[in-house]
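Field reference: sequence -> structure
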Amino acid sequence: MIIPPESLSEDALQGVLEEFISRDGTDYGESELSLEAKVARLKPQVMRSEVLIVFDDTLECVTLMTREEWRGRQ
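Structure field:
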């Protein structure tokens, strides 16, 4: 299920973005950025629906994926 970012409070959206960025295996290239910088890069993509907030009913967890990744799972 896709969760529209507008349906979350600012604090909840911030928490989702920070949790996703903090997961093991996330890579942002050669230079290391601060958490704030990473959130600042990711949030506009989420707000434009280029990156979707997805809740998995089976696993009962939230993740982020590109629109193309979402389409591939349908």
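Note: The chain has three helices and three strands.
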